[in-house]
Amino acid sequence: MTEPAWGPQAPGQDPVCPRHPDRVSYVRCQRCERPTCPECQRPAAVGFQCVDCVREGARGVREARTAFGATLRRGRPVVTLTVIAICVAVYLLQATVAPGITYDFGFAPVAAGAEPWRFLTAAFLHGGVIHIAFNMYALWLFGSYLERQFGRARFAALYLVSAFGGSVGTLLLASPDSRGWATISVGASGAVFGLFGALVLVQRKLNQQFGQVVVLIVINGAIGFLVPGIAWQAHLGGLVTGLALGAVYAYAPQRTRTPVQVVGAVAVAVVLLVAAVARMAATGLL
């Protein structure tokens, strides 16, 4: 009976790599003891292991995750950078060749029923250099951190649902008899306030100080009331949404964390949608 290439060798038979039978190898894997050629060798604590044993060993190693279930990643915050790039590109269009998109895609309660995409598109538009500079700085500062904690999918959901929540806040809190009912509002501020709200829950979950975040929320919230032309309703709507999603992400039971987080995020979005539809129906927009 002929022995396999990685077993006892017949007299005069040279050991060969099982992955490359045409290559003779006298170096054996420290784990399975099969011959392994230089291409298949991987350094181990003692000697070498073959690529198959390294792959098998990796399957038994649990991925490092954050307290919120995200896989620890190195590298750039992809979602945060993508949102910033979209906002900057859209602002350049607003400021140059297509200023009309501000009125076509900004949010106004009076247009919510007929053009529902405005609930989200308004979050990617801005009203000036200072406006977009502040929002993008806050998004980079806090978004990068939250994306690492939550992971890309959870963070993207947080941003988009908070942006939606900001527009819903404007719809719920603006009076049909007021000027604001037909006034176009734009900006990522609602989504950014959602990040503020989620950040409070993150810091609390990690047993870290969050007083500075609360002060930041109070200061920026006050600006919305004191400075004319700022949609404080969107700030409040985004903040409440971010707090709700932050609670879902932070306090989901560990054993069922991902399903609870998904269902919780969907539930928050559905509550916002129901509230928006009810408000539009009550004010004759539907």
In short:
With 286 residues, the protein is mainly α. It has helices at residues 51-59, 78-95, 101-105, 118-121, 129-150, 152-173, 189-205, 211-226, 232-251, 257-282, and strands at 16-17, 20-24, 41-43, 48-50.
Helix/strand layout:
Elements lengths: L15 E2 L2 E5 L16 E3 L4 E3 H9 L18 H18 L5 H5 L12 H4 L7 H22 L1 H22 L15 H17 L5 H16 L5 H20 L5 H26 L4
Antiparallel strand pairs: 1-2, 3-4
What characteristics describe this protein?
single chain; 286 residues; mainly alpha; two-stranded antiparallel ribbon; 56% helix; 5% strand; elongated; disordered N terminus
Commentary on this structure:
This protein is mostly helical. Helices cover 56% and strands 5% of the residues. The chain has a two-stranded antiparallel ribbon with strand order 1-2. A two-stranded antiparallel sheet has the order 3-4. The model is unreliable at 1-8 (pLDDT under 50).
Order of adjacent strands in the largest pleated sheet: 1-2
Query: How would a crystallographer describe the biggest sheet?
Result: 2 strands, antiparallel
User: How far is the first residue's CA from the last residue's CA?
Assistant: 82 Å
Helix/strand class: mainly alpha
Number of helices: 10
**How large a portion of the residues is in β-strands, by DSSP E?**
under 5%
Mean pLDDT: 88
Helix content: 55-70%
Low-confidence stretches: 1-8
| Shape annotation | elongated
SSE order in H/E notation? EEEEHHHHHHHHHH
Number of strands: 4
* Rg from Cα: 28 Å
